[in-house]
Write a structure and sequence with these properties.
alpha/beta, Rossmann fold, 2 domains, seven-stranded mixed sheet, three-stranded antiparallel sheet, binds tryptophanyl-5'AMP
Length: 372
């Protein structure tokens, strides 16, 4: 669905404008999804014993058919998980967001996961990347997925151009039900769009139909339009509609906008060096005042601060500690310089570990890749 409104556009290939917290309710309405309610969170908690901070904080904020999925689960119908990555470069922290929750869901529900690498898609949309390059990135990015700790016995990584034999018969069945007028309406394609892109949604739909079981897809809200199509087609193929759980966009380090690979200076990549991280964080936009005197007098503005947002989204899972940080900033008791130094240290600690696990993942890759 090409969604245009006063301030922003959200499609799987273009996110423009400054999406503010209050815009997510609008997106939910415009996309026709359901808000993630406390009642649903409580139902999840009944099965998991606790709630992940990304759920508690409503960073995952919207869904399709989660209630149905839980009904099925409670009847003894287990679900599988599905998510993915378009390998067009290195992975940044924003990409990790849906995968972090997916890993938690895998652990809590002992759910099988299909993880799709759409090297075909990124070749088709890119003006610059060759198919060999996107395929290489698929293998590189798979290391990041494995480094998050997914269970090899429950996880299958699908690389589209490698596993096409498995996907193609399913994609054909989807494609036969998908018209040009639908992809035009949903994605804004026109006569100049290459025919590969017109077909592509069929490939991204395919993992939903590998098994005729309930399926849950944690994903960024930008990917929802593909699955709106998939869900319309599912019953026509005799399959259940996949349920979706949408996350907000992790913000970049600039004054506005989401973390995006097209603005590398405002995104932290998993492959960044310590110096890169220190540099980017030093230049991050904060909610601080011009001088220390003003900060003391007026207090900071944590709600505008990217450092605060990085803690909220990634690095401070403790709600009480988060509240204390918010309060201290508001009261002018903390200063941007020290918050930046601490965050850079925290990110570098995480990246040192992650990069080590990424290296180890090279040996585990074979256990994760889907074999046709
Ligand atoms: P891609 O590579 O653009 O993004 C991978 C996942 O990361 C999410 N995402 C973000 N989430 C939070 N904050 C951000 N700043 C941010 N940037 C990206 C995306 O929504 C996505 O969930 N075509 C897909 C790959 C794919 C896929 C799937 C994704 C194939 N099958 C099933 C989700 C579910 C793509 O190019 O994702």
């Amino acid at each position: 669905m090409k969604k245009e409104s006063r301030k922003f556009t959200v499609t799987p290939w273009k996110i423009e404008g400054n999406i503010q917290e209050e815009d997510y309710a609008k997106l939910t309405k415009e996309f026709g999804t359901e808000p993630l309610t406390n009642e649903l969170l409580e139902r999840i908690k009944k099965h998991t014993g606790e709630l992940h901070y990304l759920l508690r904080r409503k960073i995952f904020f919207s869904h399709r058919d989660l209630k149905w999925l839980l009904d099925e689960y409670e009847k003894g119908n287990k679900f599988f998980l599905y998510t993915g990555r378009g390998p067009s470069g290195n992975v940044h922290l924003g990409h990790l967001l849906p995968w972090i929750l997916t890993k938690w869901l895998q652990d809590k529900f002992k759910a099988k996961l299909y993880f799709q690498m759409t090297d075909d898609e990124k070749f088709l949309v890119s003006q610059k990347l060759s198919l060999e390059e996107t395929r290489n990135y698929a293998y590189e990015n798979a290391l990041d997925v494995i480094a998050l700790g997914f269970k090899p016995e429950l996880t299958k990584i699908i690389i589209d151009t490698e596993n096409i034999k498995k996907l193609y018969p399913i994609a054909l069945k989807v494609a036969k039900k998908l018209t040009f007028s639908t992809v035009k309406a949903v994605f804004g394609f026109d006569n100049a769009t290459n025919v590969g892109m017109n077909f592509f949604t069929s490939i991204q739909s395919a993992p939903c139909f590998i098994e005729n079981k309930p399926c849950l897809i944690p994903l960024g809200i930008d990917q929802d339009p593909h699955f709106r199509i998939t869900r319309d087609i599912a019953p026509k193929l005799g399959f259940m509609k996949p349920a979706l759980l949408h996350c907000k966009f992790a913000p970049g380090l600039g004054e506005s906008g989401k973390m995006s690979a097209s603005q590398p200076e405002t995104a932290i990549f998993t492959t960044d060096s310590e110096k890169d991280v220190e540099f980017k964080i030093r230049n991050a936009f904060t909610g601080g005042r011009e001088t220390i005197a003003k900060q003391k007098q007026l207090g900071g503005m944590p709600e505008k601060c990217t450092i605060y947002h990085y803690l909220l989204y990634f690095f401070e899972p403790d709600d009480k500690a988060m509240q204390e940080k918010f309060h201290a900033c508001r009261m002018g008791q903390t200063y941007c310089g020290e918050c930046k130094v601490k965050l850079a240290e925290t990110i570098n600690k995480f990246l040192r570990e992650h990069q080590k696990k990424r290296e180890l993942a090279k040996k585990q890759l074979g256990k994760f890749l889907m074999k046709d």
